[in-house]
Specification:
Number of helices: 3
Helix content: 40-55%
Number of strands: 0
Structural class: mainly alpha
Oligomer: single chain
Length: 66
């Protein structure tokens, strides 16, 4: 579960229309929260496994490369 304050950020991510919009939303959250991009991180991904949910691997890789 995320802290309540992250609900708005999650909405930004969910409403991103394409990869560029998602990256812009991530940049906004990084700036707003003053995240240290040099800190060691662990990425945990979960997804809906029901058909026809797409596998978001390209987005995960893009985010990891940010």
């Amino acid at each position: 579960m995320l802290e309540q304050t992250w609900e708005g950020y999650a909405t930004l991510f969910a409403n991103a229309k394409d990869d560029d919009a998602l990256l812009e939303a991530i940049r906004k959250v990084v700036t707003a929260t003053k995240l240290d991009l040099n800190a060691k991180a662990v990425v945990i991904q979960a997804r809906d496994t029901r058909y026809p949910t797409p596998t978001p691997l390209s987005t995960t890789k893009t985010v990891a490369d940010l």
